[in-house]
Design a protein that fits this description.
The protein contains 6 helices and no strands. It is mostly helical.
């Protein structure tokens, strides 16, 4: 597990990936960006533990599905499926919060 983490460093944090466009913009845009980040983090917390793990490893650590499957001890197809359902669940959760079009 430690080897996989060292092999590919964290490319970008959640806040960085959400707010990258708000840098250098006015304070109102930055507040909106921070709120969006908060809403996304809240939605991610509602995912199952495995979906959260797969999403984090794929989206924020940029690991391959093969690496994720080895790290979590699951089949590669299961990692893909968990990622797909995590994204689908996130969309639904964010749409319920009225944020489906921003993300």
């Amino acid at each position: 597990m430690e080897q996989l983490r060292k092999a590919k460093p964290n490319k970008m944090s959640l806040d960085q990936s959400i707010c990258i466009q708000a840098r250098g913009q006015d304070p109102e845009d930055q507040v909106i960006c921070q709120d969006l980040g908060y809403q996304v983090r809240q939605a991610i917390e509602k995912l199952s533990p495995r979906q959260r793990a797969v999403l984090g490893l794929r989206a924020f650590q940029d690991l391959s599905f093969k690496s994720i499957s080895q790290l979590l001890g699951i089949k590669e197809e299961t990692a893909r499926s968990n990622y797909h359902f995590a994204l689908k669940s996130l969309r639904k959760l964010l749409e319920k919060r009225g944020m489906g079009h921003e993300v």
